[in-house]
Design a protein that fits this description.
It contains 15 helices and eleven strands. It has 410 residues and is an alpha+beta fold. The chain has three domains: 68 residues, Glutaredoxin, CATH 3.40.30.10; 122 residues, Glutathione S-transferase Yfyf (Class Pi), Chain A, domain 2; 152 residues, 2-Layer Sandwich (Alpha-Beta Plaits). The strands form three sheets. A five-stranded antiparallel β-sheet has the order 8-5-7-6-11, with helices on both faces. β6 and β7 form a beta hairpin. The radius of gyration is 27 Å and the shape is globular. The two termini are 46 Å apart.
């Protein structure tokens, strides 16, 4: 009999139970977040588990412990006695509630996945150092967190701290934290994690915040006392040459206002059912081929992408750097495939018939290819609809690829 169903995403908290299911070869069905998930788990906590006879669990620690005990009630992964079991729970709680949230508060703003707030980033960075200090002290004298034997405390904590090594812990950080680095390398080479992470590659430098381009504000010239008319007339040519240049306008502003304001569409898309209401509204009231053009946008370097969440962060950063053009564009981009075998595609609606004025505000825009779409072509229209809805796989080089994640530029 099936043990149950695990609802998960590419969020890092889904990794430990997925690793356990694979390691113990458990008969657990893996499902993505869907309407039935939302019905059973109204808080939206990921992952969620449903077993026989309506048995339900949320919270990743509870789900993981249940899976371990279901696979092997005598498993030493939870410690060999009550003291070690308490130690395991201590490290699970520390990593889940103290370490991971603060890592997210640093890397998400840096990668464009969340608004940047320097004070928050700095404070969370300091707190991460305090928590890692606890790891460093413990691992100075022990191979693993609880004892000299691998436990689920190591598996779980290493799986969550992956986000730190993915984004923040460059070579200089690793030199300054040798115990944690040694432990992480050791644990991620254990089969249970290696099967889901593969050969982990460290980054050389941490991600850095790239502020979106901003138009420079013109400084107001101080007022001068009125001079005699003759002197003012003589000084007029020089004064005009020193006057501040007019504030530059976005090149697409010259096209004027469209029939339907794009902000009206963005509100409608955000608040209505996508397939039932938003998509019909888009084609009937928003998209006018004389005012807007449609473009398929593909990332050029898919072979360099690794984890799907990192690919999605890449999209978020790209959108963040398009902020100067958001009055003239709307788009959806998705990450398709799986870890270490994924790609990025999507569509944009752009004011006018040329994409360059809208996108060259972003320094990385040339990392993407742009193909014009025809709104009257059924295949192109179907692609746009799916980019709006994210509810069907994408076809890439004749292969069907599931959508793992995505973002909306609005």
């Amino acid at each position: 009999m099936s043990l149950g169903t695990l609802f998960s995403t590419e969020q890092i908290r889904s990794l430990p139970p997925k690793a356990l299911i694979k390691h113990f070869n458990l008969d657990v069905k893996l499902e993505k977040e869907d309407e039935s998930y939302k019905k059973h788990f109204p808080l939206g906590k990921i992952p969620g588990f449903i077993g026989p006879k309506g048995f339900k669990l949320h919270e990743v620690i509870a789900i993981s412990i249940y899976l371990i005990n279901s696979a092997d009630p005598e498993s030493k992964l939870l410690g060999k006695n009550a003291k070690e079991y308490a130690e395991v729970l201590k490290w699970l709680s520390l990593s889940n509630f103290e370490l991971l949230p603060h890592i997210a508060k640093v890397f998400k703003p840096l990668t464009g996945a969340a608004p940047y707030n320097k004070k928050q980033v700095d404070e969370s960075s300091e707190f991460i150092e305090k928590v890692i200090g606890i790891f460093e002290d413990r691992l100075a004298n022990y191979t693993y967190l609880v004892s000299e034997r691998l436990t689920f405390a190591d598996i779980f904590s290493a799986a969550l701290i992956v986000r730190g090594f993915d984004n923040l812990f460059g070579s200089e950080w690793r030199k300054a934290h040798p115990n944690t680095t040694r432990w992480f390398k050791t644990v991620t080479q254990q089969k249970i994690l290696h099967d889901v992470l593969g050969d982990y590659k460290f980054r050389e430098k941490p991600v850095e915040y790239v502020a979106p381009k901003k138009e420079k504000k013109q400084t107001q010239q101080p007022k001068k006392e009125a001079a005699p008319a003759a002197a003012a007339a003589a000084a007029a040519p020089a004064a005009s040459s020193d006057a501040p240049a007019p504030k530059p306008k976005h090149p697409l502003e010259a096209l004027g206002k469209p029939t339907t304001p794009i902000d009206e569409w963005k509100r409608f898309y955000s608040n209505e059912e996508t397939r039932e209401s938003a998509i019909p509204w888009f084609w009937s009231k928003m998209y006018n081929p004389e005012e807007w053009s449609l473009w398929k946008v593909d990332y050029k370097y898919n072979d360099e992408l690794t984890l799907t969440f990192m690919s999605n962060n890449l999209v978020g950063g790209f959108f963040n750097r398009l902020s100067a053009s958001t009055k003239y564009i709307f788009g959806c981009m998705v990450v398709y495939g799986e870890n270490n075998n994924n790609g990025i595609t999507g569509f944009f609606m752009v004011r006018g018939q040329d994409y360059v004025p809208a996108f060259d505000v972003a320094p990385d825009w040339e990392s993407y290819s742009f193909t014009k779409l025809d709104g009257s072509n059924e295949e192109d229209k179907k692609f746009v609809n799916n980019m709006l809805a994210w509810d069907e796989p994408v076809i890439v080089d004749g292969e069907t690829k599931e959508i793992a994640d995505g973002k909306v530029c609005k």
